[in-house]
Write a structure and sequence with these properties.
This protein is an alpha+beta fold. It has two domains: about 230 residues, Hsp33 domain; about 55 residues, CBS domain Like (Alpha-Beta Complex), CATH 3.90.1280.10. About 35% of the residues lie in helices and about 30% in strands. The protein has ten helices and 14 strands. The strands form three sheets. Strands 1, 2, 8, 9, 10 and 11 form a six-stranded antiparallel β-sheet that branches. Strands 7-6-3-4-5-12 form a six-stranded mixed β-sheet. About 30% of the residues are buried.
Length: about 300
């Protein structure tokens, strides 16, 4: 697998259709190194990571996109995140045996929440029903019903790597009269491209170079492949964020934890970084005027 950690966009000249390819290799291995995920959990997590990267390329934002699934089934929680800078992370929480089967069998009663956090703007959320056999099925239905944009997701996860393929019909920018005249042609183009895309094998998506893959699928079409965007695993946790969380928690509760444990210990679920705070550090956090009393080098993480 030579397509290391990158997102590529492509478009069909003279057609109102765009596409994307995503490959996660090293970043996927770093996610797996932090937890021993069962095969079915790993499958859902990898598919979600590919999906959130593909989704991130459909809009412009400066910040984070987060996809979260919480349900009542065996797979309790799944969270994946991508930033506008191309960093990715993800985790899953489960109880007992996670079966094969539909999203309902795996997640139980729940829903998918997609949140976009853009600097200087209010958060934006979309809710996606947990319908269908796979995450790709649910996202296809969401785009068709909520966004009126026919879309096709293909997601592949193995223990070694993750890959994703995406097609979407672009909004018609013509006038209402022209739109009616060209609607049939647009539908025919979309159906033709999807018929060709349906021949894509998982082994091809995982093993072929993007140029070779697109030529094999669409050699009679004019396809323009754009420069790749690099992706990498990185966690957005920091000691400063943990400190702000402790301030929100309040001095009284922080002191209660100190009395019980002698320290406050916070672990990041995503990267397993550990942040430790002793009594002196907590006191300085809530009383900055005495911050100079914290001994040099006392910060532990």
């Amino acid at each position: 697998m030579s397509n290391h950690d990158q997102l590529l966009r492509f478009n069909f000249q003279h057609l109102d259709i765009r596409g994307e390819l995503v490959y996660l290799n090293s970043s996927w291995q770093q996610v797996l190194a932090r937890y021993d995920y069962p095969a079915n959990v790993r499958q859902q997590l990898g598919n979600a990571m590919a999906a959130v990267v593909l989704l991130s390329a459909t809009i412009k934002f400066d910040g984070n996109m987060i996809m979260q699934v919480q349900g009542s089934g065996p797979l309790k929680k799944l969270v994946v995140q991508v930033t506008s800078d191309g960093t990715v992370r993800g985790l899953a929480r489960w109880e007992g045996l996670v079966p094969d089967g539909s999203l309902e069998h795996v997640f139980g009663d729940g829903r998918i929440v997609i949140t976009v956090l853009t600097k200087g703007a209010d958060p934006y959320q979309s809710l996606v029903a947990l319908e269908g056999q796979t995450l790709a099925d649910a996202l296809n239905v969401y785009f068709l019903q909520s966004e009126q944009l026919p879309s096709t997701f293909r997601l592949v996860t193995t223990p070694e790597c993750v890959a994703g393929f995406f097609l979407q019909q672009l909004p018609d920018s013509r006038s209402s009269l022209d739109r009616q005249l060209h609607e049939q042609a647009r539908d025919e183009d979309w159906n033709r491209i999807n018929t060709l895309a349906a021949t894509l094998e998982s082994s091809e998506l995982l093993g072929l170079q993007p140029e070779t893959l697109l030529f094999r699928l669409f050699h009679e079409e004019q396809v323009m492949l754009h420069a790749p965007k690099s992706l990498n695993f990185s966690c957005t946790c920091s000691r400063g964020k943990v400190e702000r969380t402790l301030l929100t928690l309040g001095r009284a509760e922080a002191d209660d934890i100190l009395k019980t444990d002698g320290k406050i210990e916070v672990d990041c679920e995503f990267c397993q970084e550990r942040y430790l705070f002793n009594a002196v550090e907590v006191a300085a956090l809530f009383d900055p005027e005495h911050a100079d009393e914290v001994p040099p080098g006392s910060t532990l993480h």
